[in-house]
Design a protein that fits this description.
Elements: H1 3-18, H2 25-45, H3 52-63, H4 66-76, H5 80-103, H6 107-127, H7 133-147, H8 158-187, H9 204-207, E1 241-246, E2 252-255, H10 256-260, E3 265-272, E4 283-292, H11 293-299, E5 308-313, E6 318-322, H12 323-329, E7 331-336, E8 339-340, E9 350-352, E10 366-372, E11 395-400, E12 405-407, E13 410-419, E14 425-432, E15 438-439, E16 441-442, E17 452-460, E18 463-473, E19 495-501, H13 506-530
């Protein structure tokens, strides 16, 4: 072997060990992740900025087929929003890796490829109209600049980039928490006046925590957060206005201060996501402070009910309701659990429509109510859903014992909730192992638009058992036991849990995991398949 050949081999080896950022796919991918993190950090540091990743994540929801969204939510559950953020960051990483490879021969093309997701994401974020152009431009520029390191001939090792990516991820989490604290401090300046029509305080025994049982009335941190925007909009409370316009004799434009000066009332209202599975937790009940939509329509001079109300959020989300429904049931909430609305729950104001799922009536971060004779399609109506045809059906669930929970033999108290919005629940029954239905004891009645707690006594014997629950409305209708997916007419079915009496904890834990996986996969497949049958009659 010649000396020249040995020298060349050693130099080549040194080049591979140095691993410039543009010299490997892994390095380019990590550089893209750093660029996504830079955009998030910059957006979090501003008052109303949006990152390129947030624009990409929202666009993914806006343009994906509705059937895939249904299947995806069923599969990943509450990880849907983190999943969107991961997909957006992955797109940035892949683009940077491709840009790094292209730059070896065509530098300009490589730079364009690496920066494309950030430029596109920034543009899409600005289209949402809920962000500052200056702050979003700064976040976009930060992402573009960092992404160009994927094509720059810098002697940075992959190990260094990996450590930087990990540090950036932690920084993003910290920055998001700080931004939320800053937003909370700004909301702290808002003082909710005493409601003109308050609800009576609940007895202590009704609100006493029960292990495993969801709270009767949730505080802000206890209610699930469900929407299509990642992260939630940051609304400037000083400049925000609620507009009531369209076919109205007296258009309104109310600041938050003016809205709070109206006679406020309290209502106990339940919310439920259309993707809440049978017995699922994508729901909850809270005490809200606000004003009835009917009162706002009266102030605007809207007399008849032969029209439609279009509710629009600051991020462009839109729902459409019959005026009669909005007037009779609609509630404009400005507070939750006696506090100003948190950012994640729609600050400064949100629309709640009892009896309708979230995507068919509720609107967070509300900015406009428009009365019109010819309604446009709602956000989901334009995607194939049939507005107003999938109400919240009467249903019930078992919270305690949980699915595949182990309990000791003897007397076991079974607990849960039942609901039948707009008509109320007047009976709940529990069944063990296919035996006779036994009446449960109903808890406090918060009204027809809230859920109702119940409990029953079960004498547990060793072995594996199945418990089921059903409810009856005040109109004498038992809940539908036939299982149905969200599309096209809403979720239905009887909730059942398997309980292990006696024995060790290992087997129940393994079966709980297996059941969870199987349920998610099956529910996702059924949700997608339901879209193939669009000619079913509306029930």
């Amino acid at each position: 072997m010649s000396d020249a050949f040995v020298t060349t081999s050693r130099r080549t080896s040194r080049r591979h060990r140095s691993a410039p950022v543009g010299g490997g796919r892994r390095a380019g991918f990590l550089a893209g992740l750093l660029a996504a993190a830079a955009g998030e950090l910059t957006a979090s540091a501003t008052r109303r900025g949006r990152s390129p990743s947030s624009g990409l994540a929202r666009a993914l929801v806006d343009h994906s087929p509705a059937m895939l969204i249904d299947g995806g939510v069923a599969l990943v559950g509450r990880a849907d929003k983190p999943g969107l953020a991961i997909l957006a960051a992955t797109a940035s990483g892949l683009a940077a890796a491709i840009g790094g490879r292209l730059a070896e021969r065509r530098p300009l093309l490589g730079v364009a490829a690496a920066g494309a997701p950030h430029a596109l994401g920034g543009y899409l974020a600005l289209r949402r109209r809920d962000a500052s152009a200056r702050d979003t431009a700064a976040a976009t520029l930060a992402g573009v600049l960092i992404s160009t390191t994927a094509v720059a001939p810098l002697p940075v090792r992959v190990r260094t980039l990996l450590a930087a990516a990990a540090a950036a991820t932690g920084a993003v989490v910290v920055a998001d928490r700080l931004a939320r604290r800053r937003d909370a401090a700004l909301r702290g300046r808002v003082q909710l006046p005493t409601p003109a029509r308050p609800l009576p305080p609940l007895p202590a025994e009704a609100t006493a925590p029960q292990p495993g049982l969801a709270p009767l009335l949730a505080a802000p941190g206890q209610l699930c957060v469900i929407d299509i925007t990642v992260p939630e909009p940051r609304v400037d409370l000083d400049t925000w206005r609620l507009t009531v316009d369209g076919d109205v004799p007296t258009p309104l434009s109310l600041t938050l201060r003016e809205l709070l000066q109206l006679p406020l009332e309290e209502r106990d209202l339940m919310m439920i996501c259309v993707h809440n599975t049978v017995g699922g937790s994508r729901m909850g009940c809270a005490r809200w402070t606000g004003v009835g939509v009917g009162a706002l329509l009266d102030r605007a001079g809207v007399a008849g009910d032969d029209a439609w109300l279009v509710a629009e959020a600051v991020d462009g989300y839109r729902n459409v309701l019959p005026i009669e429904t909005a007037r009779r049931r609609g509630f404009l909430a400005v507070g939750m659990a006696g506090q100003p609305l948190p950012r994640e729950h729609g600050s400064p104001a949100r629309l709640l429509i009892p009896g309708r799922h979230g995507q068919d009536g509720n609107v967070k971060w509300l900015r406009r109510l428009t009365v019109t004779a010819i309604p446009p399609p709602s956000y989901w109506g334009a995607r194939g859903w049939r507005d107003g045809t999938y109400p919240v059906h009467p249903a019930s669930r078992i919270d305690v014992p949980a699915q595949h929970q182990r309990v000791d033999p003897g007397t076991v108290t079974v607990r849960g909730y039942a609901w039948a919005p707009t008509v109320s629940v007047d009976a709940v029954q529990v069944q063990a192992d296919g035996g006779p239905w036994q009446d449960a004891v109903l808890g406090i009645d918060l009204g027809p638009d809230a859920w109702r707690p119940w409990h029953a006594t079960w004498h547990a014997t060793p072995g594996r058992h199945e418990l089921r629950v059903r409810c009856r409305t005040s109109a004498g209708q038992w809940q539908d036991e036939a299982c149905a997916t969200p599309y096209p007419h809403g979720v239905r079915g009887v909730h059942a849990v398997t309980v292990h009496v006696g024995g060790g904890p290992a087997a129940p834990a393994a079966q709980r995991l297996a059941t969870e996986v199987a349920t998610r996969v099956t529910w996702a497949a059924r949700s997608v398949a339901a879209w193939r049958h669009t000619d079913d009659p509306v029930r």
